[in-house]
Structures
1.
Amino acid sequence: MNPSSSQLDSTFRRMWRWYYAVPPEKGAWVWWIGPMIVGIGAARHLTPELALLIGAALSGFMIKQPLTLVVKVMSGRRGSPDWGPGIAWTLIYTVVVSAFAAALAMAGHVRVLLTGAVGLPLFAWHLWLVSRGEERRQIVVDIAAAGVLALTAPAAYWTCGGADASVPWVVWVLTWLQSSASIVHAFLRLQQRKLKEAPSLSERWRSGVPSLLHHVLNVAVAIVLAVGGLAPALTAVAFIVPLADGIEGVMRPPVGVKPGRIGMRQLGVTSVFAGLMLIAYLV
């Protein structure tokens, strides 16, 4: 086997590793799946075009991992063996998302595609931070990304035939608020895990103020929207679950807990929230 054939074979075998094709952030999955589920519930209807949206959203989300690896290789942060698999998966996802986007456009859902295009500048910003090795612990970027991913809510609503002018944007705001509060709380818990011992009760409450204020604000916004007839009454109940988790997190700091467990907990809480929101709109 000549060197070029051997290198190609090595690249082919490496590219099937999970690491090259799937984003490792567990919590980020629910940032777009949760809002999409709520948007479907708000529309109260299913259409064949929904499958196209799911395919486009999934492939658009997945492309982040290989493209990030490509940028890391280009900036010298990763070795050249990651170049081939990164390029291969980037091309695969690009073809797939383009095919689904074209199908959505042909089905008349151009505004759905426009919501997806909103995220391109933010993604470019993320890749720029990656090239500088500054992508970690960027809470503003994460909150903005959650807002972009939450656009699957109005996208799902429109794809499923929803016709109300305000509902898709109300669902988007509500789901983004929850994702944002989850991010702020996760950053707090990641700081707490590094402590050698649990701080005093007063210090726990002081450090938890930003997270708790965000959760309380979310409940207040949900109540105002419900009273104004812009959201179902049960939406406030959905926000109480993350608030309770936020209080528990402040009272019991996860000292020494692994980041993966923190991420899975946030994933679980946000999933419960999405489920309650779905029930609220269906009821």
2.
Amino acid sequence: MDWLNLIVLAIVQGVTEFLPISSSAHLILVPQLTPWEDQGLVIDVAMHIGTLIAVMAYFHTEVVRMITGGINLLRGRPDGDTRLLLQLALATVPVVIAGFLLRDLIAGDWRSPLLIASTTIGFGILLFVADRKADTSERALAGMTYKDALLIGLFQALALVPGVSRSGITMTAGLFLAFSRTEAARFSLLLSIPTTMAAGLLGGYEIWKSGDTALQADAFYSAVLAFFAALVAIWGLMAWLRTSTFTPFVVYRLLLGAFLLFWFL
């Protein structure tokens, strides 16, 4: 892959991974709308590793809390930090199971522009409906139950379909459960850590096993570039949601979906 291709993909991945507009959809669309070939699932995963490091850096305090919670659990003295760790683990289970069962569809038939257009529009409308509810929502993560975490995890499994958006659907679920916009976004971003880590371990093994030094170099550079792009995007999203709504993202999804339908039909 040439440098321009890597840079464009990394910026697209980094910026869209944590915004509710579907990074996987945009990564699939890049080769559809440019002369470049599809970069494949391995490079997608490498860039997800870059964004994983970015979200861990931004929420470093919460990450330390989760590590502390895990240690306390092993010592038999669970606390509030342990509760957050267990809730994130519980919410991750559905997508891991679904990802294993549907892996062939994810890598093949589901990388379809028309499917992306449909899910982009449909789940954009769902986000709009949930966002209206957030005007009166005040729940914080401290009040999250294990049932809440499992429900958000079940919604997250839908994001295996390109165009749904992992961050978008988990934020939507959080809003429907009456969490505030910033708290829904916070849990969604924290939830990306175990989910992306699981995918990253598998993808990293595939890259190492391939023995392809060119592929390994492409994966490394794309991960680094995606890290910096993601860090900026996370900061911007959290700052925006403190005073504003998800409406701009909904409008973008509707326009993107309409464009895709026009382009491919």
3.
Amino acid sequence: MSQLDREEPLGLVVHSLPTPQESVVEPMRPSGRLKLLAIMLVCSLPVIASYYAYFVVRPQGKASFGELIAPARPVGNWVGTSLQGGSTPLASLKGQWLMVSVHGGACAADCQHHLFLLRQLRATLGKDKDRVDWVWLVSDTAPVDPAMHKPLGDAVVLRVDPNVLNEWFSVAPGKSLSDYIFVVDPLGNTMLRLPAVFDVADSAKARRDLERLLRASVSWDGPGRPQ
């Protein structure tokens, strides 16, 4: 192979530069969009599956102890009143599972027993108890005994109009709101009612019902309310 003559100029090939129009990033093609959507769908499948099991399969199932409420009753734009007299939108309770007891402010011995069972049932949930708030909704204007404040501890206590309570909750014929513990999901839907009085064996059944609901929502619901 011959060597290049030292005096012979080197030939340079100049490639044309792209025009400004050609240098603009090409929009994503339909096939690229489809791939992106497919990736997003795969990543969201666990959440979709939990929502399907929770909202579609759930009403057809049977609880071992409680009664499923179908259709679930969503919280409206209602307002409750704290024991200190401040207004609290009931929608602010969203973001946590709720176990709700409804009684008058006088709260006689049976009411106090119901609240005790409510607190104990929440405690049996172990590490999942931080995903659940226990709530006493006072259904009349009777004053609450100050001696009740300490036993209530971290309970949410609000005074709510009886008409609102009847809209949000559902009872069986011949029953009253105080006959139940109501379970409300983190979206504000009342979807399960448990008898307000139960023995040790029934307590285990009620806990299993709650554990099933908590497992079904674990992929999209965590402890504490979203900030």
